[in-house]
Amino acid sequence: MPDPGCTNAPPDAKDKAEMDESVLDQKRTCPYCSKVIETRPYWSHIATEHPAEYENSQGTWLPLYKDYATAGMEIATILMVMSELFNAKSEDIESFLMHSLYKEKVAAGTCDADAKAELAQLFGCAITDIEKRIKLGE
Ligand SMILES: [Zn+2]
Question: What pLDDT, in 10s, does the model give residues 80-97?
Fold first, then answer.
């Protein structure tokens, strides 16, 4: 009998996609009542169940970002999940986070140039972009 040869395709790519999807599903929990949100669009739960928080959701963005970042979530994924939860544009959330994190770093004693360099690395963009976005948020 001849050897059948290359029948074993590596299953890696598919496994990884499934894992990412399940991590995302776990993260679609309500930041206010911790329930898993199962209905799309995800923001409709917050708009209906927590209308006051939905109107003023920016107070939630920074602490929620920190929870996600601590859990090891990528910035691109964080922005996607948050824009789905709060029905906000991901650029708006990104600008808000850049501005808030910059202020926080400077208040904690990081010098201006270091704070901008750290943000550029975190968001994967140029320092000049960070400067522009921080100015817009002021
Ligand atoms: Zn809720």
Answer: 999 999 999 999 999 999
How many A from CA of 100 to the centre of ligand 1? 24
Instruction: Name the helix (H) or strand (E) containing 70.
Output: helix 58-70
> Is residue 78 domain-shared with residue 121, that is, in the same domain?
no
Q: Which two tokens stand for residue 131?
A: 């400067």
pLDDT tens for 42-64 read 999 999 999 999 999 999 999 99
Is there a single domain that holds both residue 41 and residue 67?
Answer: yes
Does any domain span residue 115? yes
* Centroid of ligand 1 to alpha carbon of 121 (angstroms): 33
122: left (phi over 0), alpha (psi -120 to 50) or beta: alpha
Residues with CB under 5 A from ligand 1 (ion): 30, 32-33, 49
pTM attached to this predicted model: 0.79
Q: Which domain holds residue 120?
A: 89-138
CA 118 – ligand 1 centroid, Å: 33
